[in-house]
Design goal:
about 170 residues; alpha/beta; 4 helices; 6 strands
């Protein structure tokens, strides 16, 4: 393995310094991130998404508003096309928005379900997946628990993944 900062890890996961909203790849791309199940959008990585494209926030809010009539809930994923070859995957992997007596908002089982569904979308589109260290910011998750999920649900299914560490 090379000492280059963008060299893939032994698992095939590539980690780069940069902005996940500006994926470094040719061809179809999906930008994945974790959302909460309460309809809140306004802190964390979603701000970077909203600065670039209004559609993912609009879609998430409508999806939440109409939740009595759709699949909105933990483990669900919605792809929102933002450019000809780029989609944003709103993945519901966080219960609530703050740490409480039940621990951090991250729900690892829901993240695994989201990633499984994301893999199917990525394979159908022939897309690579790009993400920050999902679930590790406001959701309070641990990368040591998320990375194996990314490896199992995406990489082992043949989906190429790049994780971006923001400077």
């Amino acid at each position: 393995m090379s000492d280059s900062p963008d060299a893939p890890l032994p698992s095939g996961l590539r980690i780069l310094r940069g902005d996940a909203t500006s994926p470094q790849a040719a061809g179809p791309k999906i930008i994945a991130h974790v959302c909460n199940d309460r309809g809140g959008w306004g802190k964390g990585f979603v701000l970077a998404i909203s600065r670039r494209w209004p559609e993912p926030e609009r879609d998430y809010r409508a999806w939440h508003r109409e939740r009595a009539h759709n699949d909105f809930g933990l483990g669900a994923v919605r792809l929102v096309q933002v450019e000809a070859d780029t989609w944003v995957a709103n993945m519901i992997g966080q219960h609530g928005m703050r740490r409480g007596s039940g621990g951090p908002p991250i729900r690892y089982e829901a993240v695994a379900s989201c990633l499984r569904a994301l893999a199917a979308h990525a394979l159908e589109l022939g897309a690579t997946v790009h993400m920050p260290r999902i679930g590790c910011g406001l959701a309070g998750g641990k990368w040591e628990r998320i990375q194996p999920l990314v490896e199992r649900e995406l990489l082992e299914r043949g989906v190429r993944v790049t994780v971006y560490d923001f400077d």
